[in-house]
Automatic annotation (TrEMBL):
CDD domains: AHBA_syn. SUPFAM superfamilies: PLP-dependent transferases. Keywords: Pyridoxal phosphate. PANTHER family: DTDP-4-AMINO-4,6-DIDEOXYGALACTOSE TRANSAMINASE, TRANSAMINASE. This is dTDP-4-amino-4,6-dideoxygalactose transaminase. Pfam families: DegT_DnrJ_EryC1. It comes from Rhodoferax saidenbachensis. InterPro entries: DegT/StrS_aminotransferase, PyrdxlP-dep_Trfase, PyrdxlP-dep_Trfase_major, PyrdxlP-dep_Trfase_small.
């Protein structure tokens, strides 16, 4: 009584196509209109010696709200998580030839951030259950040149943060969290993003809470907070005023957030629990409805952790299921279940690493340290990318209860007929 697969001309299992989700509602619109009604100073920053060096009213109110929600001493808003990652590298003093341990399964910005300071990304593999840095391999990769570890809380699941922080502290390294995907995820009651020395959040349009473009760095350190603020806003111009001449080696940029964005971001932040719970509901149902299929393993959650399901990432075993991930993924797509196989390629496979050239023409900074980025460097990541990972990005879609049932039905339908596609 199997119905015909949509890829073979049958009816799709998802009878009502998923709508695109829009996180921006009346609250955000009202925040923007209220702000515009009050005045039209669209950026409250000045890159010079005066109180507005630290940002305008909306920016400062947003940062205070963020610090309260994430129970952190300092929040430094920026115009993207990419800017935040770069600011973090500058704040911890990464310089030419310093090694920074990063996972290869992440967005390129994680690995490019050290490079712009002449630092060398050292790729360490992920664990096959939660897809985050493997702490045993991290420890082995530490050399006298290592300065920092960037842990990525990938797909919304925390890396082994407490363990990595202890390792970093024992070795005199910084732990930086790329928490772009893992807002309000938790490890042992602590919020992801707040366990490392600096945590970076993204407010990009694709994330759980978003304002189009934006980001936030959090830190418990007064010193790192000041450095982040200097890097965000032409800090070289104010070191005499702030009487911190020892920081004259911090090159500043313009990573500032506008007042409109900050007003909207404060409204989005108020909805963070609702927006994450919306996604969790869908993913818990998907996992529950698909946990009995040999060869298809729904995402796992480590004991004590909260996963925010930026991605619902299942593992796919072609030998058991009887078809390739690519064919399965295409058949599923035709059933009306938007999905993708494999996330991004391991970062070291992009041409910049393959050719070992990033800045200038002579291979800087790769020429400072003899590292290679050959095939097989991180086998777990390569396997997940090429063969095993099958993903759905629930943040992007509006999915009601009936539709979740249809998504489950779509997977079961393709699964049962996998050998015929
Ligand atoms: C989205 C993302 C970033 C970059 O965030 P932007 O705010 O777009 O700069 C960095 N790292 C990871 C893991 C991401 O998912």
């Amino acid at each position: 009584m199997n119905s015909k697969l949509a890829i073979l001309g049958g009816e799709p299992a998802v009878k009502r196509p998923l709508g695109v989700f829009n996180a921006i509602g009346p609250e955000e619109k009202a925040a923007v209109v209220d702000f515009l009604d009050k005045g039209t100073v669209l950026s409250g920053f000045h890159g010079s010696a005066r109180p507005s060096f630290f940002g305008g009213e909306q920016v400062q109110a947003f940062e205070a709200a963020w610090s309260a929600r994430f129970k952190t001493k300092h929040s430094i808003s920026v115009n993207s998580a990419t800017s935040g990652l770069m600011a973090a590298m500058g704040a911890i003093g990464i310089g030419p030839g310093d090694e920074v341990i990063v996972p290869p399964y992440t967005m390129t910005a994680t690995a490019v951030a050290p490079l712009i300071y002449g630092g060398i990304p050292v790729f360490v593999d992920i664990d096959p259950d939660y897809f985050c840095l493997d702490p045993v391999l991290v420890e082995k990769a530490i050399t006298p040149a290592t300065k920092a570890i960037i842990a990525v809380n990938l797909f919304g699941h925390p890396a082994e943060l407490t363990r990595l922080r202890a390792l970093a502290d024992a070795k005199g390294l910084y732990l930086i969290e790329d928490n772009a995907q893992a807002v309000i995820a938790e490890e042992d009651g602590k919020l992801a993003g707040t366990i490392g020395h600096i945590g970076i959040y993204s407010l990009n349009v694709h994330k759980h809470i978003q304002v189009g473009e934006g980001g936030v760095c959090v830190t418990a350190s007064d010193d790192l907070a000041l450095r982040l603020q200097l890097i965000r806003n032409h800090g070289e111009n104010v070191i005499d005023w702030l009487d911190v001449k020892e920081l004259s080696n911090l090159v500043g940029f313009n990573y500032r957030m506008t007042e409109i964005t900050a007003a909207m971001a404060r409204a989005q932040l108020k909805k963070v629990d609702v927006l994450v719970e919306r996604v969790e509901r869908v993913c818990h149902a998907l996992t529950a409805g698909l946990s009995d299929l040999p060869g298809l393993t729904p995402p796992k959650v480590r004991t004590g952790c909260r996963h925010n399901y930026y991605m619902w990432s299942a593992r796919f075993d072609a030998a058991i299921i009887g078809t390739t991930r690519e064919k399965f993924s295409q058949a599923l797509e035709k059933e009306g279940f938007p999905n993708a196989g494999g996330y991004v390629r391991p970062i070291y496979q992009i041409p910049m690493f393959q050719r070992q050239i990033a800045i200038g023409k002579n291979g800087f900074p790769f020429n400072l340290v003899g590292k290679t980025y050959s095939e097989g460097l991180c086998l777990v990541t390569e396997k997940m990318h090429k063969k095993e990972l099958l993903q759905f990005q629930p943040v992007s879609w509006d999915v009601d209860e009936d539709q979740v049932a249809m998504l489950i039905e779509a997977v079961r339908k393709v699964y049962q007929q996998a050998e015929s596609i």
